[in-house]
Amino acid sequence: MAPYEAEDSQGPGRRKLARYAVPVAVVGVAAVTIGLVPALADSGDPDLPKITAQELIEKIAASDTEQLFGTVKIHTDLGLPSLGGALPGLGGQDKGSASADPRKKLTELATGTHTLRIAADGEGRQKLSVLDDASEYSVIHNGADVWAYDSASDEAYHAKDAQGAGERAKKRPAGVPATPKQLTDELLEAAGPTTSFRVDGTARIAGRDAYRLQIKPRQSGSTVGAVTVSVDAKTGTPLKFTLTPASGGAAVVDAGFTKVDFGRPAASAFDFKPSKGTKVTEAGELPGKDREKAGRAPRGAEDLDGLKVLGKGWTSVAELKLPGDSGAAGLATGSAPGGMPADAQHFLDSLGSKVTGKFGSGTVYSTRLVNVLLTEDGKVYAGAVTKDALVKAADAG
User: Fold this and answer.
1) 3-state class of 77 per DSSP?
2) By the number of CB atoms within 10 A of the CB, which of 113, 167, 237, 343 ranks highest?
3) pLDDT at residue 275, rounded to an integer
4) φ, ψ for residue 385 (rounded to 5)?
């Protein structure tokens, strides 16, 4: 049986699909949004029973999908220029880190188009594989073990899942979402009276009938135009997630399956044993801060000292103070830290613009979705808001 073929399941009652994510290493301030490109819709929209937006949201919340496997494509368009691997943690490799370390490798998904295979079997077993023309990179969670393998370099990374899948399921980690459902859950969790919902027809996604839920900000000042989620009519599982910017143009994030099966993946899909000659890096062998964080899922806000959130809803802005040795002062004044490669300097110059306000002066670095303000005194303000809204929040903060 091939690794992603289905097998019959007669197991106990199903639990919700575990929200497994792998960490993203970020140097300085970088906003990274990962998404999955949709499958081409089948010809014609299905004729499904009428449903209200509230009923559709309740259907998503009640979805108890535990097993699935399928193929997705990733396309992310933040409007960033090519980095050429110059910035560590954003496609480049830090000295002393393993090439298979997921906290470094998966940042490559921040731009461009990629093909993935995913498989999940409850809280204890998940697999995500990034497929290139001549290589494959996989992250496998199987019980107490987390493996990552890079076939291009024949290197593997291994960590023990000390926290446990059950604890992770109780407290959602921040990181790289593995499925459109994770993206949708996070969005609905953050939504409130600042959000409007409506059912926007039906669609065929990866051969399955689906409802389309449109989600839009009610507030002005957000860079988000709308989010459309295509929800499987039978299971309530999101099949496609598309985020379009308020400025128009192509989607910033598209999330969807090209193929999907809700059967149980074969157990062999989660088996991994390094071959003879494969270089294996254990989490405990990583240097410094990498070793401190190895083997646990990222916790999100509590990992950032002094983080505050200004405002609410779609126009909320994160404020934090960077360490004095981070080089933030140089970036805020338009000069990169000494020794930065030319293409990295070009990247920063293309994004930055000088601003002033009650907060003082600094530089705003912009993408199609996220704006980040670095002040000369080392403070950072970031959010999916316009430059004017960001400066206003910094003045109020």
Assistant:
1) coil
2) 237
3) 93
4) -135, 165
pLDDT of amino acid 352: 84
DSSP string, 202-251: EEEETTEEEEEEEEEE-STTBSEEEEEEEEETTT--EEEEEEEETT-SS-
Ordered DSSP codes for 105-171: HGGGGGSEEEEEEEEEESSSEEEEEEE-SS-EEEEEEETTEEEEEETTTTEEEEEE--S-HHHHHHS
**Model confidence pLDDT, tens digit, residues 372-392:** 999 988 899 999 999 999 999
> Rounded to the nearest 5°, which phi and psi values hold at 360?
120, -130
Q: Which residues contact 69 (CB under 8 A, 6 or more apart)?
A: 4, 6, 117, 118, 119, 120, 260, 261, 263, 265, 269
Confidence of residue 138 (pLDDT cuts 50, 70, 90): very high
Domains of the chain, first to last = 6-293 (2.50.20.10), 304-396 (no CATH)
Q: Per residue, what are the HEC states of 129-141?
A: EEECCCCEEEEEE
What is the distance between the terminal CA atoms of the chain, rounded to a whole angstrom? 58
Which phi and psi (to 5°) does residue 378 adopt?
90, 15
Q: What is the pTM of this model?
A: 0.73
Which DSSP category does 327 fall into? S
Q: How confident is the model over 160-201, as pLDDT tens digits?
A: 876 554 444 444 434 445 467 777 777 787 777 889 999 999
| Mode of pairing for the β-strands spanning 279-282 and 155-160 | parallel
Q: From start to end of the chain, where are the E strands?
A: 6-7, 67-76, 112-121, 125-131, 136-142, 145-150, 155-160, 195-205, 208-217, 224-232, 238-245, 253-261, 264-265, 279-282, 308-310, 317-321, 352-357, 360-366, 371-375, 379-383
